[in-house]
Write a structure and sequence with these properties.
mainly alpha, Arc Repressor Mutant, subunit A, Four Helix Bundle (Hemerythrin (Met), subunit A), two-stranded antiparallel sheet, 64% helix
């Protein structure tokens, strides 16, 4: 397995920093400059605390003019990757302490999927996403309106027409998640979701892998709608926590990242789904509009352990 190269500690003098940079392609502008510097920072080749060279030196090293460089540095500062102080120049920031959740896909994009750090970040992303999905359903169970349920059902039905296209299906999945988050009446959750909703455009290869089992996953929307309608937040939390964990473990195993999901976790997921099914005898009829042969409620939840990422 490919290993990450050890971070290069960059000295504060200009010559040390310029040594790791080279001219960008002539057709590239602000995005390319920002991407180049961002990747160097996230990979550790521009170390936290090191001072960047002057604008003149950096623009010459990158082969761009100063206006382009300033625009790129402004983007990096907005991301929390650098700090600029008047009279002191620009310094590389400790991104783990300053950057937001949007840095997660950026760091993943700068790594090779064979690298251990990439898998670590993917696992972190899955953990954040399933917590968001679970707690959004929990809040939506007590705050939803009939209009929220109607919006969820419409998106769930439309997902059945997107099975042939992973990117379109992913965008629909995020639309469903947004409907749940809005039903939760928590703007903070919606802002967190924004960091994931850009994945179809920014990480198409990863999205295609994450949504690799769409035919099985599509039936799970009905189960989620049933949990929201149940008005039982604690029951929803117990059912989804184990189910989502098992789904992620099975996806990792299916793609060769782990030897298999945790046996206890899978058993807990099965028990939670069975208990939920028995406690909601009418769930199937209440979600009959969901796709996948009209199945919903507990039946869809049972199928969810085979799916990859329909959260």
């Amino acid at each position: 397995m490919k290993k990450l190269p050890p971070p290069i500690v960059v000295p504060t003098d200009a010559s040390g920093t310029l040594a790791v940079l080279g001219p960008v392609a002539r057709s590239s502008v602000v995005d390319a400059v920002a991407d180049r510097l961002r990747n160097e920072i996230l990979a550790g080749r521009l170390a936290a605390g090191s001072r960047l060279p002057s604008e003149r030196e950096l623009s010459l090293a990158l082969g761009v003019n100063r206006l382009t460089l300033r625009a790129a540095l402004a983007r990096l500062e907005a991301m929390g990757l650098v700090t600029t102080r008047h009279g002191s120049g620009t310094e590389v920031a400790a991104w783990r302490e300053r950057a937001g959740l949007e840095a997660l896909p950026m760091v993943m994009g700068s790594l090779d999927p064979d690298e251990p750090a990439w898998l670590e970040l993917l696992t972190a992303m899955m953990e954040v996403r399933r917590i968001l999905a679970t707690e959004a359903v929990v809040l939506a169970a007590v705050r939803h309106t009939p209009e929220d349920i109607a919006a969820m059902r419409q998106i769930a039905e439309e997902q059945a027409t997107r099975l042939h296209d992973a990117q379109a299906y992913a965008r629909g999945d995020f639309a469903f998640q947004r409907a749940v988050v809005r039903a939760a009446r928590n703007v903070g959750f919606e802002l967190i979701l924004n960091s994931f909703a850009r994945f179809p455009e920014e990480q198409p290869a990863l999205v295609a892998a994450l949504y690799d089992n769409r035919e099985e996953a599509v039936g799970f929307y009905g189960a989620l709608i049933a949990l929201v309608q149940s008005g039982d937040p604690e029951g929803a939390r117990n059912a989804l926590r184990a189910t989502f964990t098992a789904m992620d473990e099975e996806w990792l195993a299916r793609h060769g990242h782990r030897s298999g999901g945790d046996t206890a976790t899978r058993r807990q997921a099965r028990e939670a789904r069975e208990a939920d099914r028995k406690s909601r005898p009418s769930a199937s009829s209440s979600t009959s509009s969901s796709p996948k042969n009209g199945s919903g409620g507990g039946g869809s939840a049972k199928k969810s352990t085979k799916s990859s990422r329909s959260k």
